[in-house]
Amino acid sequence: MVYTLTLNPALDYVMYMKQMEQGTLARAERETLDIGGKGINVSCVLHTLGVATKALGFSAGITGRILESYLQEKGIDMDLIRLEQGMTRINVKLKETVRETEINGAGPAITKQDIDRLSEKMEQIKTGDYLVLAGSLPKSLPEDTYEQIAAPLAAKGVLLVVDTTGEKLRRLLPYHPFLIKPNSKELEELFPDSNMTEEGMKAAASSLRKEGARNVLISMGQNGSLLLKETGSFHRLKVPKGKVHHSVGAGDSMVAGFLAGFLESGRYDIAHKKGAAAGAATAFSDSLGTKEQIERLFAAL
Question: What is the per-residue burial (b if ≥16 Cβ within 10 Å, else e) of 148-165?
Fold first, then answer.
């Protein structure tokens, strides 16, 4: 079973327009509303690929009820904690012809008591299960929240998958996560004095592996992706051919595809290909990639 944890899920409201001038009235040509949050996205793509998954996290207010109803409609198994105050955030994505602008909501405040309730939910995760820790922390939570969650689970043999940034990522490395997935920009933030050529990224990935990560998957946008396997060897892939529609959820899809590929084959090269295909399928779509799109791109890699 692959569990995902999204501490600050969202509804993604996406508006498409030719151009927007700041400070003026702009009208969208069309809009979409879907569920969001990194862990939620991972669970959705895993479900699409036929992998057993359960989404954990919080929901609040009327937007939280909408989030839950969307998950139910998609058939996603979930175990969300309802908060009494606040509302699940709305993220607004403005898609112009030549650029993207994102405005992310703050989300509800989460208390220590809420985290204690979450810890009780975590007891269902067993040895050999996977837990995806993805996304930023709400401002109401301390910086070591992910560590508090990871420590007891790693001790009982849960396989951690980490997709977060900066020191939150680095502080989880002593728990030997099965997979971490920084993108090239996040890698540069971790190693500000390094030259992020491909060789520089390889050196940075090797450093993260020495710090505790088992596998390091680096997404590099139009330059493809790079995997440092726990065996110490690298696996490089170019981007599949296609037209990029948007980037939201592409990294989450890559994580889901990687896990699906590894669980199916036990091979890191296959996992990397499935991850690259899933990430591209989402980037080439207006929403998360479908199984058919992922399989087609996988076959082309």
Answer: ebbeebbeeebbbbbbbb
Residues known to be catalytic: 252
The per-residue pLDDT for 263 is 98
Backbone φ and ψ for 11, nearest 5 degrees, come out as -100, 130
**What is the pTM (predicted TM-score) of this model?**
0.93
**Tens digit of each residue's pLDDT (9 = 90 or more) over 18-49:** 988 888 898 999 998 989 899 999 999 999 99
Q: Are 89 and 110 in contact (CB under 8 A)?
A: no
Q: 89 with 10: CB under 8 angstroms?
A: yes
Q: Distance between CA 281 and CA 245 in Å, rounded? A: 10
Q: Look up residue 18 and give its two tokens.
A: 């030719």
Sheet holding 30-36, edge to edge: 30-36, 10-16, 89-95, 100-103
Residue 225, SS3 per DSSP: strand
Of residues 14, 62, 59, the one with CA closest to residue 40: 59
Beta-carbon neighbour count of residue 126 at 10 Å?
12
CA distance 255 to 263: 12
Using CA atoms, how far apart are residues 119 and 278, in angstroms rounded to an integer? 31
Cα–Cα distance, 256 to 86 (Å, whole number): 30
What is the rounded distance in angstroms from the CA atom of residue 93 to the CA atom of residue 13? 6
